[in-house]
Amino acid sequence: MTQSGLSSKVALSDFDIFSQFLEKACGIVLGKNKEYLVKSRLRKILNDNKIDTLAELVKTIERNPRDVLRGKVIDAMTTNETLWFRDNYPFEVFKNTILPELCKRYPNQRLRVWSAACSSGQEPYSISMATDEFERTSLGQLKAGLQIIATDLSNKVLAECRTGEYDSLALGRGLSDERLKRYFNELQGKRWEVKPEIKKRIEFKELNLQESYASLGKFDVVFCRNVLIYFSADFKRDILSRIHKTLKPGGYLFLGASEALNGLADLYEMVQCRPGIMYVSKGEDVFARSSTKSSTFGSSTASAKTSSTTSRSTAATSPTTRPSTSRSGVSSKTTSSTKSQPSTFKPKPKPTDR
Ligand SMILES: C[S@@+](CC[C@H](N)C(=O)[O-])C[C@H]1O[C@@H](n2cnc3c(N)ncnc32)[C@H](O)[C@@H]1O
């Protein structure tokens, strides 16, 4: 073997060792051609710690797993890209359709929302602002309030979340002037802080999505957006199955615009929003099959028409569509992936299942 052949083989195995470490630590799967990206993201850490190779870095971390080095490496390898009201429709559907529906379903219970992988806080704060906007137009409906649990793997981004302070660059990404004025206090140095009434709904917690979600309790709505793209198909399925367990029957799940269920049609019903898609957690005690027309959101008249309206469903092999009577951004079609039982689901309020 030539000298250059030998060194490229050594470099590849060095990269593989690091890839295995990263996947084990947080589920992130590195593509084969990501070596340059890894090296550029870790260059400063390697230099600061006088470490020459990725394999040596992994060894150093494994020798002392509690050292801050581990967290720094994982932080460097995660992508924290986020925006206010990202993609807009999840927050519109949440405010205009989901909240009115949940207030009817659980009139005296506090609603609970999970922002899983919340990055620097734009997602949970957007949820809290959308909740405030709902309350302003529907006085008294959200009687028992709403709690948002926002989690991320990274303590660094969670620290930013907790301050609730952002600079003009961050605020320029998706936040309207009207929302800036209404929901932020201006600080010195072109920085703004989220107002206490928006902050107080949110509890920030460190959570690696590989860990158990049992301590989080049950949720009415889960936002797990723009994080599954970094994981293997098996890990995605594992996360989505365990999120299903945290959702109350008939609870709602939002994924990122480029993410899909990859199977699990037995756990979630896909619902078309216009634009976008959300998922409704299947559970027999809330959704009772019905062939009668209902005006409640999520219910419908039966239609066995095969949908061609969704381009990115991998969950539904032959989805059926049904008209819905929702008054908001949710589409007049929902998509059920249960081919043999197309139909209609009628939400049955069950306020005691919390
Ligand atoms: C691209 S951001 C998405 C932020 C937000 N959900 C959104 O849609 O704008 C991805 C976030 O996932 C977090 N993350 C990556 N792997 C994770 C894991 N195994 N457990 C929890 N969070 C993780 C990263 O720290 C990062 O903040």
TrEMBL record:
Pfam family, one: CheR_N
Xref: InterPro entries: Bact_Chemotaxis_MeTrfase, CheR_C, CheR_MeTrfase, CheR_N, CheR_N_sf, SAM-dependent_MTases_sf
GO terms under biological process: methylation
Compositional bias segments (type: Low complexity): 292-346
The enzyme's E.C. designation: 2.1.1.80
Catalytic activity as recorded in UniProt: L-glutamyl-[protein] + S-adenosyl-L-methionine = [protein]-L-glutamate 5-O-methyl ester + S-adenosyl-L-homocysteine
Domain CheR-type methyltransferase: 14-284
Disordered, as annotated region: 292-354
Organism annotation: Spartinivicinus marinus
Gene3D superfamilies: Chemotaxis receptor methyltransferase CheR, N-terminal domain, Vaccinia Virus protein VP39
Taxonomic superkingdom: Bacteria
Entry keywords, A to Z: Methyltransferase, S-adenosyl-L-methionine, Transferase
Protein name: protein-glutamate O-methyltransferase
GO molecular function: protein-glutamate O-methyltransferase activity
